[in-house]
Amino acid sequence: MYAEDTALLAQGKTPSQALTTLEAWLIPWKIKLNVDKTKAILFFKQNNDWPKINIYDTPVDWKNEVKYLGVVLDKNFTFKSRTNHPRGKFNKSLRAQYSLICRNSSFSIVNSTLIYLTYLRPILAYASPIWGCTSKSNLTQIQAMENKTLRMIRDARWYHRNEEIRTALKTPSLAKFIRKLSDKFFFDLLKARNASFAKIPNYDPTYPCNIKRPRYSLTL
Q: GO molecular function, one example (predicted)?
């Protein structure tokens, strides 16, 4: 649970026990949760027969996905919704900058590319060290939005390859950009003094595994 970027952690043998512990902590601190905006999610691939839970004697609904700090988390950690979510925001921002980066823009290609890299690409790559472990098909959808924009900036023709356009604009692929962000993110994580961060197990993302974990983005 979080409010204004503040996360609360509580544990117990059952969800109800954890919530009881949390409620007991909230009372002396004079904090009250907004139950109407509270959602519950269990990150588990199996059945959906989850126990009923209550906060302040009010039932809390279980959800298949929730939004946390702008990132959509689904119960299976596929991040499919996360890759679909930025499409609307990206297109809205693209329309706002369209006259500056369109094919007939009076701006130079260098300046138009700079606008994309500083204003539009961060929308696509937001929190990517976490969801970069999503499937290749999901990453391809996001890369397609970037390809379309770069082709417009370069005024490319149908026979121009996307790789050639990125080379001409000196713009690495989105996967390489995510890899760069992930390198910095996980390196900084090792230096963090937060006790909870220190308990996060380290693992080799290149080790064969059926489940992709966040550090998989280091292999992109």
A: RNA-directed DNA polymerase activity
